[in-house]
Structure to design on (272 residues):
């Protein structure tokens, strides 16, 4: 490795050497899916949330993927109504317990559930160790009642047509 | 209009289904639709439920208008049952069946 002495007082010109670590930590690409319509489910087993998936092809196997999820949901009951984040078919961003939900959710029993939307969010830095197209998606289920995305159960609260937009954003973090 | 998923649950309370954008053509049956519920059955149920909802508008209007239970008890204490009935009747008359 060569050593170059610089005289700052006389100014510095030239080109910095390139290396493998110069781009480390930089964002390589950012992709987002925004779901602007609504969906609802009564499924008691995990099912895909339509429109809430995004595919990214990392430029290198060493890249990490930063996933940012924002959802607006409303359930009419006080049952467990979790949302999971998946890489392919693998649930990620979960606690080290048997009930491995990325975003556990249960509303209060105060008679107002049907009028509120809740903003469930999560951020997770994943290491897919792949340079192939990788899909991140959301699944949900409800142990009781109906679960809505981007709207309330009863639109009499916020007003008919007052909906929300949910997003899933992935960013490639270069190694 | 009443939600499609609400209509489906009224037809089959344990239906396992997802509906996108409240669109009759975007229904996913997670249970395979074992009772073969048709789109017409769903839209007919929607109409029925919406009619029932509309017919009970007076109930919702009255509920929003009635004084609180505390105020009604206070009304009874100060004005007796007849006074309380007068108060309640004003709301019932305002929103007839």
């Amino acid at each position: 490795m060569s050593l170059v002495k610089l005289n700052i007082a006389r100014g510095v010109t030239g080109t910095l050497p390139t290396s493998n670590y110069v781009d480390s930590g930089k964002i390589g690409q950012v992709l987002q899916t925004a779901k602007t319509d609504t969906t609802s489910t009564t499924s008691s087993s995990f099912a895909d949330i339509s429109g809430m998936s995004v595919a990214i092809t990392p430029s290198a196997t060493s890249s990490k993927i930063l996933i940012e999820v924002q959802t607006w949901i409303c359930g009419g009951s006080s049952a467990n109504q979790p949302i999971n984040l998946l890489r392919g078919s693998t649930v990620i961003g979960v606690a080290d317990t048997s009930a491995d939900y990325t975003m556990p959710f249960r509303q209060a029993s105060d008679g107002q559930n049907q009028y509120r939307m809740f903003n469930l969010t999560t951020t997770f830095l994943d290491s897919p160790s792949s340079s192939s197209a990788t899909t991140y998606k959301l699944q949900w289920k409800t142990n009781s009642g109906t679960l809505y995305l981007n709207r309330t159960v009863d639109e009499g609260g916020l007003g008919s047509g007052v909906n929300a937009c949910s997003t899933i954003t992935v960013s490639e973090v270069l190694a | 209009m009443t939600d499609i998923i609400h209509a489906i649950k009224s037809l089959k309370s344990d239906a396992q289904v997802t509906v996108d954008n409240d669109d009759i053509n975007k229904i996913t049956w997670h249970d395979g639709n074992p009772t073969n519920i048709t789109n017409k059955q769903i839209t007919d149920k929607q109409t029925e439920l919406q009619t029932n909802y509309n017919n009970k508008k007076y109930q919702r209007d009255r509920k929003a208008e009635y004084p609180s239970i505390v105020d009604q008890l206070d009304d009874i204490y100060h004005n007796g049952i007849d006074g309380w009935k007068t108060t309640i009747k004003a709301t019932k008359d305002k929103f007839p069946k």
